[in-house]
Design a protein that fits this description.
The structure is a homodimer of 81-residue chains.
Chain A: E1 2-9, H1 16-27, E2 33-46, H2 51-66, E3 72-79
Antiparallel strand pairs in A: 1-2, 1-3
Chain lengths: 81, 81
């Protein structure tokens, strides 16, 4: 089973990396960019084939290692391999 | 208009960051992880409201700044604001 995980800063948390990307794009001549937010994206290949157990495992991975839940949210999508 | 951009390493390109995440998860006791690939995720708020023009602009941003197209692929999704 494949898990796709998006880890994004909670809204309201300052995103200096996104701000830097926006400024770089603007200085390259790209106009009309209101905001850029940068997050992380992870693809995990799991041997687990039960969706419920796989989701529980990935939730636990996010909470314990992948995301900093003080400032970050995570979203998990599962896909049959 | 909102654009969501996924930037991932092309398949075949070694992903040491993903490997480190997999090893860290394994050492925390999470078994059954075959592989982890790490990518970037960007959300752009654009003033452009025409989907075709927005996509063309974001394609150009990816090719010129956001992605290293030698080793990375990008995928763009657009969403009405």
């Amino acid at each position: 089973m494949k898990a796709r995980v998006h880890i994004t800063l909670k809204s309201g948390v300052l995103d200096p990396q996104g701000r830097a990307v926006r400024n770089a794009l603007t200085s390259l001549g790209f106009d009309g960019i209101d905001d850029v937010r940068q997050g992380k994206y992870l693809e995990l290949d799991l041997t687990e084939s039960d969706a419920e157990r796989a989701r529980a495992a990935v939730e636990s991975m996010c909470a314990r290692l992948l995301a900093n839940t003080v400032i970050e949210d995570y979203q998990i999508e599962l896909e049959e391999a």
